[in-house]
Amino acid sequence: MQDLKAFRRYYNNSLHGELQGYESRRLRLLVVLGIIAGALLGFSIFIISLRIAALSIFLAIPWVVYFQLGRQRVRAFKDQFKPLVVRSILKFIDPRLCYYHKEFIPKDTFYRSSIFPYTLSSYGGEDYIMGNIGEVFFEMCELKATYYSDIKGREELFFDGVFFHANFNTKFEGRIVLFPREDWQMFIGTMKDFTKYGGHELLKTGNEAFDKEFIIYIDPDIHWKEILTPELIEVLDIYHQKSNKKMYVSFIDSHFYMAIAEPYELLEAHFLLSNINFDLLAAYYDELFVFTKIVEDFDVTH
Predict the structure, then answer these.
(1) Dist CA 66 CA 144 (whole Å)
(2) What stretch of H or E contains 251?
(3) Residue 128's closest CA among 104, 110, 145?
(4) Using CA atoms, how far apart are residues 188 and 183, in angstroms rounded to an integer?
(5) Is the pTM of this model over 0.90?
(6) What is the DSSP letter of 225?
């Protein structure tokens, strides 16, 4: 994957032009909605000045129609932005990568990760990206999942963020799960499940900073060093320190899963402000860089 300087050149030479076209559509829509609002306001003032109560009652109807149609047009405008940008970024990274705006990773894949010890009550997502880097298949998307809390008697959100899955095609068998130390109470059931079958906590990976931040449990008699390589741990540690986001990871046989709590959309389009912003796109590119770097490491190492 190319570095940020190369992406900046691509942005200046190609993507900036596409964003300018999108910006023109935003301004046209903003002007049209403004003109209609001004006309409605003038009409409303005129009707009120007539002091006819029966007519004044019906003033709400055109305003309700205006706000409903305006909201639909703005939503449609915003929904065009992310596919435009993501497809352009993926074209720069690797034209073979695929993007589906309203698709997401299947629920059974999320369950197979064995990261979160909950039975889902709702599950959905968007912005599905998939493809191969070398011989390694990967997929990722934004997900939101909830479970029903018997204690609180209501649905509780337990994950809102990016979910990533890669099949790195090895003969590795076993389980490795890691999660933030601050969330240890959430994973008591996971820890008990490991120890029940002879698993244990891995106390030292060779990266002290990483070991302080994460709890790692592994199955007995597995060659964890072949999977948790110093290079992979360094990539995860740097990303964690740079982003300050909660990160959950598991290795289940030859599959790698990572969930990153990120309860906001990096590429949520603005309507009242310009969307020509390199830093906004660079932040998303940075996210993709981490995932593709992990895939590349798997492909080279294994």
Answers:
(1) 31
(2) strand 247-252
(3) 104
(4) 9
(5) no
(6) G
**Cβ(85)–Cβ(281) under 8 Å?**
yes
Is residue 136 within 8 A of residue 168, CB to CB? The reply is yes
Q: Which residues contact 103 (CB under 8 A, 6 or more apart)?
A: 126, 128, 141
CA distance linking residue 172 with residue 294, whole number of Å: 17
Q: Where are the alpha helices (DSSP H) in the chain?
A: 4-10, 16-49, 53-57, 60-93, 107-112, 188-196, 208-213, 230-243, 278-301
Nearest to 81, CA basis, from 70, 89, 93: 89
The Cα-based distances of 102 to 83, 142, 254 in angstroms read 10, 10, 28
| ∠ Cα 258 80 278 (to 5°) | 70
Going by C-beta distance under 8 Å and a sequence separation of 6 or more, which residues neighbour residue 196?
A: none
Supply the DSSP symbol for 50: T
Q: pLDDT per residue over 12-47, tens digit each?
A: 998 898 899 989 999 999 999 999 999 999 988 887
Give me the residue spans of the domains in the chain. Answer: 4-93, 98-263
